[in-house]
Design a protein that fits this description.
Distance between the termini: 25 Å
Radius of gyration: 14 Å
Shape: globular
Number of strands: 8
Largest sheet: 6 strands, mixed
Helix content: 25-40%
Number of helices: 4
Structural class: alpha/beta
CATH class: Alpha Beta
Order of helices and strands: EEHEHEEEHEEH
Length: about 130
Amino acid sequence: MTTIDAGEPAAHRPVELPGDVLVVEDDTLIALDTSETLLGFGVPSVRTARGVADALELIAAHAPDFVLLDVGLVREKSFAVAEELARRKIPFVFVTGYSGPAALPAALAHYPVMRKPYLRDELLTTLRGWRSV
């Protein structure tokens, strides 16, 4: 688990961006790159989790505003995290590196899916629409 704080007051970030984003990603380089990109966009707080247990612990301790949720984590899928986010009404987007259709359970199939590698513009567009996810 990692927390990166940009240290900027809320008044200086773009209004449409979430204040706290949780990135659930098992690949350290992707998690770091995504975190740095989010901070560069003006998101003041970015936290990362490498697995389901870490993510659920972070969510329980402090609910994020928005979550980027990798579908396939090391030896596990992130569906338990998605179910908890849905229960808490926390907006999230599934992220996957697989090119085929994301094999999501029926109860989660209506949530948006972003493909890796994603472009900076695609990530920014997703963040700007976080309230409507």
